[in-house]
Specification:
Length: 112
């Protein structure tokens, strides 16, 4: 059983991963790796799961920037008031650090 502090830490990790995946400079291979690693992960925040499933499904050359598509998606999924701008705030993180964070989240005792 996770305590409140652990759950907040997990939610923070989810958010950090999503910020990195939403960067325009994020490579398709990184998104694919995240999709594979977190395929069975049980997201703590429903909005995080929606954003994750959506961002890893985007083609490498999406016709519109992710930032332009996300508000409509979240509204259609029942989250019109979600703070979608949060996912586009600067989140400097190396690909190595991102991979490590994804791995830790995927192998956490609360995964899947």
């Amino acid at each position: 059983m996770t305590n409140h502090s652990d759950n907040r830490s997990i939610i923070d990790s989810e958010r950090r991963i999503l910020k990195a995946l939403c960067r325009e400079s994020c490579q398709a291979s990184v998104r694919e790796s995240a999709r594979s690693a977190l395929a069975d992960y049980r997201w703590r925040e429903p909005v995080h799961e929606i954003v994750f499933r959506w961002v890893v499904a985007q083609p490498a050359t999406a016709p519109f920037p992710l930032r332009d598509q996300l508000p409509g998606l979240l509204t259609r999924k029942g989250f019109p008031d979600a703070d979608w701008e949060l996912f586009f705030q600067p989140a400097p993180m190396s690909e190595t650090k991102l991979a490590d964070l994804i791995r830790r989240l995927a192998y956490s005792h609360d995964a899947g």
